[in-house]
Design a protein that fits this description.
Helices cover about 75% and strands about 0% of the residues. The chain is an all-alpha fold and about 80 residues long.
Length: about 80
């Protein structure tokens, strides 16, 4: 059976169950810290991408555009 691209993007149900179990066992402070770290990483990646697309922009312009994208949830 051939695997389609959409099937490859879907998480394995067993892995998802294990991930949920691990998250449930974490305390609220740990879950919050992990979530904040995830957001910080996403912003850093987006900022890097914007800077690479607009090498003529100042760091402040890049930060403002990143903030705008995250504020308005623009992809």
């Amino acid at each position: 059976m051939k695997t389609t691209e959409s099937q490859r993007d879907m998480p394995d149900p067993a892995v998802e169950l294990l991930r949920m179990e691990v998250l449930r066992k974490m305390g609220p402070a740990v879950r919050l810290e992990r979530g904040l770290r995830l957001i910080r990483t996403a912003r850093e990646l987006k900022e890097s991408r914007i800077a690479s697309l607009h090498p003529d922009w100042s760091p402040d312009q890049v930060r403002r555009e990143t903030a705008r994208i995250f504020l308005h949830a623009v992809a």
